[in-house]
Structures are given as C-alpha cells and as structure tokens.
Automatic annotation (TrEMBL):
PANTHER family listed in its UniProt record: ABC TRANSPORTER ATP-BINDING PROTEIN, ABC TRANSPORTER ATP-BINDING PROTEIN NATA
Top-level taxon of the source organism: Bacteria
Similarity field: Belongs to the ABC transporter superfamily.
Naturally occurring in which organism (per UniProt): Blastococcus haudaquaticus
Protein's recorded name: ABC-2 type transport system ATP-binding protein
Residue ranges occupied by any ABC transporter domain in the UniProt entry: 21-246
InterPro entries: AAA+_ATPase, ABC_transporter-like_ATP-bd, ABC_transporter-like_CS, ABC_transporter_ATP-binding, P-loop_NTPase
PROSITE patterns: ABC_TRANSPORTER_1, ABC_TRANSPORTER_2
Cell compartments where the protein resides: Cell membrane
GO BP terms in the entry: response to antibiotic
Length: 318
C-alpha cells in the first residue's frame, strides 16, 4: 500500500481534460451500517454540484472521502485525477475544505489563525485579502473563541479559500449565517467558480442550491434518488393551478391526467400539462362567465421535489 502523504505524481494542469471531481460507485460503511451505498457523479472545473438530502442521508460521509479524511469502502474518488487519501500530498495544495465544524484553537486571534494556516500552503492569498473576502477585517485581532458563530463560519471559509483551490468542498457553508452574510458567501462561491474552481457543497437551504448549483443530486439513505439541474429536478413534480370558484359555478371541465383537489370553493389542480390545462380552464371560465378567484399557476419548486424524495414518493423517470 502506498503510504499516506508520500510524494506522488503531480495532479494534471488546469487545462487538462480531467474532471475536477470524479466519484464512481462510492461506498462508506460504519461497522455493519452502510451510510453511502454506491454513488457516482463527476464535477467539471467551473461547475457547482450540490449534494442534498435529509439529516443522515450520507452527505458528510461522502464528502469526507472527497476531502481525503476517510477511505472509501467501495468504489473510487478522484480529485484532479488523484486519490485524495493515498495521494494527499498531490491533492492537498489544490483542495479547499470547509468542514461542518472546524474546531479551530480558541486562543489564537483571527489574524494569527489565518497566518498559521497560510504557512502550510504553497500559493496563499495575503492575510488581509483573505480577511477582507469574508468581512472579518475589523475582527482580525479578536480571539477565535470570542467570535460569534457566524463570524467563526466566515473564518472557516477564509481558510478554505486561502490556497486558491481548484476544488472546493463545502459542507453546509452558510449554516448559522445571517441573510446578508449568506449572500456574501454566495458571491464568493460565484467568484471562485468564475475563476474555474469546481465546487461540491451540501446545504439544507434549498434556495442556496437553486442560487449556486449547476447540478444537484438528492441523496436518500445513501443512494442518489434524483439528479439533474435545479429546473430538471423541480420538473419531476407536477405544477399547480390554484383558484376559488363561486358557489353557483358549473362543474369544472375534464382535465385528463390532472389531479383535481377541491375540498370547498378553493381548487388545486396538480398537472404535468400546465399550459394546456390552464388554457382549458381559462376558456371554460370565459365561456361560462365564471371568475377564477385568486388565480395562481406555478411550476413545481425544488423544495417539492426534495420533500417527495425525503418522503420516499416515487419520482417519475424522464
Ligand atoms: N462515525 C460514525 N459511526 C457510525 N455511524 C455514523 C458515523 N458517522 C455517521 N454515521 C451515520 O451515517 C449516516 C449518514 O451520516 P452523515 O453525517 O453522512 O449524514 P448527512 O447527510 O451528512 O446528515 P446531516 O444533514 O445531519 O449532516 C447517519 O445515519 C449517521 O448516523
């Protein structure tokens, strides 16, 4: 077996046609329990890939293998063509990692923490630039233990970005951040991606996945249940037309294939033919001089698709 941290072949240059991240049939076990049960995906330079899933779905267990912190129990992981565990010395200079909890020493100041980290890197950003990026310039001389939770998270992110990584792995990057800081983090991720960095992230904020991710995989019990662009994933669920009817309205027209839920005057039509069914309803309403009160028509959201996977509702294959 190759010793950990042995000098190994360098990773390919940025212009090489190698996926930034390639995960094939990844499995991760804790004793008899298999937390990740054979997942595969690839992420290209300049792409953001989000792993979503309810608590315990296996996201962190998978990310720890990408980060080189754990070995797979099956399958392979390659970061820039190299094994992040066995070829750690080659991968590490190009990999930025934001763990779910970082455990930084509390008695160092923010500046000392960044300077210490900087010494382990080959081409780090200057400390002031790193602190400015995450809005911690004014907190540079404060001890880490005195930072708020959100400030500490931003320091974690500064450390992840410090080495100008080609691959960035972010485990719940904005948990605990206020809405303004969250937007600032999104801006930083966009900047990194524009510079060609590949990003793999997990989040419980679906609007974050919608904002950042080019592609998403939804994990359930260690398996990828659904994957695609945010729009493709949302599109696995029916759209909804919602309105209310006056008491004397005639019977609704037939809407073949739609699910019509009308517990009283309010009506929900769940449909995979939004435009056709909306046209039928509007024509019917005009013909019968009926007003569709509070009419709304909306495509399904990522949240609906996510909840359907979490509930174990079968997702139609496309
Ligand atoms: N060290 C461990 N020993 C035993 N089981 C573990 C260990 N770490 C994680 N697990 C289990 O593996 C499963 C997946 O955990 P993991 O932390 O990967 O989930 P997750 O999707 O990241 O969840 P969360 O959203 O809560 O962070 C869970 O059932 C968890 O209890």
């Amino acid at each position: 077996m190759q010793p950990v941290d042995a000098p190994v072949r360098p990773v390919p240059r940025p212009d090489a046609a190698v996926p930034a991240v390639e995960v094939t049939g990844l499995r991760r076990r804790y004793g008899a329990f298999e937390a990740v049960r054979g997942i595969s995906f690839a992420v290209q330079p300049g792409e953001v890939f989000a792993l979503l899933g309810v608590n315990g779905a296996g996201k962190t267990s998978a990310l720890e293998v990408l980060e080189g912190l754990a070995r797979p129990d099956g399958g392979t992981v390659r970061i820039l063509g190299a094994d992040p565990h066995l070829e750690r010395a080659a991968v590490r200079p190009h990999l930025g990692v934001l763990l779910q909890s970082s455990g930084l020493p509390g008695d160092l100041s923010v500046r000392e923490t960044v300077s210490t980290w900087q010494r382990t890197l080959t081409d780090p950003r200057p400390v002031d630039e790193a602190l400015g990026q995450v809005g911690l310039t004014d907190r540079a001389d404060v001890r880490v233990r005195s930072l708020s939770g959100g400030e500490r998270r931003r320091l974690d992110l500064a450390l992840a970005l410090l080495g100008r990584p080609r691959v960035l792995v972010l485990d719940e990057p904005t948990t605990g951040l206020d809405p303004e800081s969250r937007r600032a983090v999104w801006g930083l991720v966009h900047e990194m991606v524009d510079g060609g960095t590949a990003v793999v992230l997990t989040t419980h904020h679906l609007e974050e996945a919608e904002e950042l991710a080019d592609r998403i995989a939804v994990l359930r019990a260690g398996l990828i249940e659904l994957s695609g662009t945010p729009a493709e994933i949302a599109g696995t669920q029916p759209s909804t037309i919602r309105f209310s009817l006056p008491a004397d309205a005639p019977a609704l027209p037939a809407l073949p294939g739609a699910d019509v839920v009308a517990p009283g005057p309010s009506v929900d039509v769940h449909t995979r033919a939004l435009q056709a069914d909306l046209t039928t309803l509007l024509t019917w309403a005009a013909d019968h001089d009926v007003e569709l009160g509070g009419l709304q028509a909306r495509a399904a959201s990522l949240e609906q698709a996510f909840l359907a996977v979490a509930d174990g509702t079968p997702v139609p294959t496309r």
